[in-house]
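Q: Could you fold this chain for me?
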Amino acid sequence: MSRSVSVSGGPALAVQSPTAVTHSVPARDAAQRVSFGGMVRIIRRRRAILIDALAILVASLDIATRVPEHPATYSVVLSSVAVLALFFRRLFPFTTTVLTMPGFLAGWSELGAMIALGTLAWRRGWNWRTMIAAAGIWAGRFVTWPLSGSPNSFAAETWRDHVSDGIYACFVVVMPIAIGLLITARQALSARIVELAASRGREQRLLAIAIRADERAKIAREMHDVVSHQVSLIAMQAGALQMATTDELSRQTATTIRNLSTRTLDELRNLVGALRTATDGADEPDLDTLLDLVRDSTMDVKLDMDLHDHKPTGPTASAAYRTVQEALTNVRKHASDAPTTVRITVEAGELRVQVDNEPPMTGHPPTCAGTELPSGGHGLIGLRERAALLGGTFHAEPTEFGGFTVRASFPLPPGE
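A: Sure. Below is the predicted structure, expressed as C-alpha cells.
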C-alpha cells in the first residue's frame, strides 16, 4: 500500500535504515558448537533407545560369559528368548519378566531377568504383578537346574547351600525392585518440583499484574484529576474566544484549539480507561489514522506510506503512530514553518518510520512572545524505550543542514 499526502504547514523528521551490528564468530568454534550441540540433542532424543541397547548388550555379555563348552540346546534357546524379550520391556514389562524366568532357571540369563524385574517395578510400581514376578525370579535363583540326576543338581545340595541360595536370591530380587521404585519416586519428585516452579511463576506473574494494575490506577487518577482539568479549561477558553471574537482568523484559530482539546480529552479518556481496566491494545491508534494526524497538524507535512501489502497492527502500529505524533509535536514546537516529510515503509521484516524536517524558514519558531512551548525531552526517551521493548531501534538527531531527523524500526510479528 503506497500513498502520498501533502498538507500545508511545518517541519519534519527522518528515519533511516537501522545500522546492522554483527558479531563475528570463528568458523571452527561455530562448527564445534553445532557438532557438540547436535550430538547432545540426538542423545536426548534417542536416550531410551540407547538405554535399551545397553541393557540388551549387558544381558548378552552375561550369558556369553556363563555358557559352558557343551551347553544344552534348550538352555541356549531359553537364554536367547530372555534376551530378545528385553526388546519389549517398556511396552509389556510383566510379560517380558515372565519370559526371562525360564532362561534364568534353566539357562544363564540372570542379569536379563533382573533388568526385566526392575523395569516392571519402574513402570507398574509395587502391585500384584511385581509380587508374582519377584517370586518367580527368586525361585529361579533359589532352584538349581537340573533338579536331580547330577552332582550339581538341586536335590544334591545341602541345607546350607539352600540357605545361601535363598539369601542371595533375595538380593537378586530386592535390588532391581528398589532401583525401579527409586526411579519412579525420582520422576514423581521431579514432576512435582516442575509443578511447584510453574505454580510459583504463576503467582509471581499474578502479583506483578496486581502491582502494575495498582500503579496504573494511580496514574489514571492523577491524569484524570490534573491533565483532564487543564485541557478542559483550554477547551472552554477556546470556545469562549470562538464566540466572542469578531476576527475570522482568531475564530478559526480558536476552533482549531477547541477541536484539538476535545480530541485530546477523548484520547485521555481512552487512556485512563485502558489504565484502569488493564486492557492491552484497547483503543490504540493505528496506521490508518495517520492521515488524520497529518491533516490536523496544520503544518506543511508530506506523508508517504509503502507497506507492500502488509498490515501492521497492535503494539507495532501503535508505536509507529506515536513516533510520528511525537516527531510532529516537536516540529510544531521548534520549527512549525519547516517542510516535513513522513515516510513509513516495510523492509526486511521491519516496519520503518522516518520523519525529516528542514530548517525553519524564518530561522526560529513562529510563536508569540512569552508563549514558547515547554519541552522536557521525555517524549523521545519514551519512544526509545517503546522501541526497545518491541525489539526495535530508535534514533533522533540534528541533520547537517540544520533540520532534524527521527528514525525508528520495529520488527513485524509473523503473519503481518
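A (continued): The first strand starts at residue 2 and ends at 8.
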